[in-house]
Specification:
mainly alpha, two-stranded antiparallel sheet, 7 helices, elongated
């Protein structure tokens, strides 16, 4: 009984496989709006042109992960790469000011803390402790703001890089379609 079912299944499957393939049933030429062969060739040529433009775009675009890495290493570097110089300078300057001020206040706090450890008079101990604590608090606040600016720079690098890549595509597209005569390695194209 099992052999008959298996043989019947193989025969029915082989009839389905070896039957004549009808392309008209498989493909609907109206599906993409190709009413004629000219329309098909026109769309095909348009796709080939876009593929050429995409190759140029892939060559010129910036990699978002690489640009993020640049901003992680040095805040503003990703902005400089994406030709957003003013924003990059502002973010880099703000980062330098915040981190530099934080380090300055930390150094001042440690200097007073060393005096606090060496003091043996109760009035000096209280004074040096207060003198060490206040700059240390400023240092923590400034370094915290520095971290916030650094994280914002990384976040904004993603936005700036995507804007830059969009502008690259728009420029490539407009330059290509603005030209009437296009010279390629395969020949000339003249548009009217």
């Amino acid at each position: 009984m099992k052999k008959k079912i298996i043989i019947l299944a193989i025969l029915s499957f082989s009839i389905f496989l070896f039957s004549e393939f009808d392309i008209e049933k498989f493909v609907d030429p109206q599906k993409y709006g190709w009413d004629s062969l000219e329309k098909y060739y026109s769309d095909r040529k348009n796709i080939e042109e876009r593929q050429k433009l995409l190759q140029i775009y892939e060559f010129k675009k910036l990699s978002v992960p690489k640009n993020i890495l640049k901003s992680v290493i040095a805040p503003g570097w990703g902005h400089f790469t994406a030709k957003r110089y003013t924003k990059g300078q502002i973010l880099l300057g703000l980062e330098v000011i915040l981190i530099g001020s934080g380090i300055y206040y930390y150094d001042k706090a440690m200097e007073n803390y060393d005096k606090y450890k060496k003091a043996d008079y109760i009035g000096d101990i209280e004074k040096y402790y207060t003198d060490a604590n206040t700059p240390f608090q400023y240092s923590k606040i400034l370094l915290g703001f520095g971290v916030v600016v650094w994280l914002y720079t990384i976040y904004d690098t993603v936005q700036v890089t995507e804007e830059y890549n969009n502008e690259i595509w728009d420029n490539i597209y407009m330059e290509y379609y603005k030209k009437n005569l296009i010279i390629t390695p395969t020949g000339f194209t003249l548009r009217f």
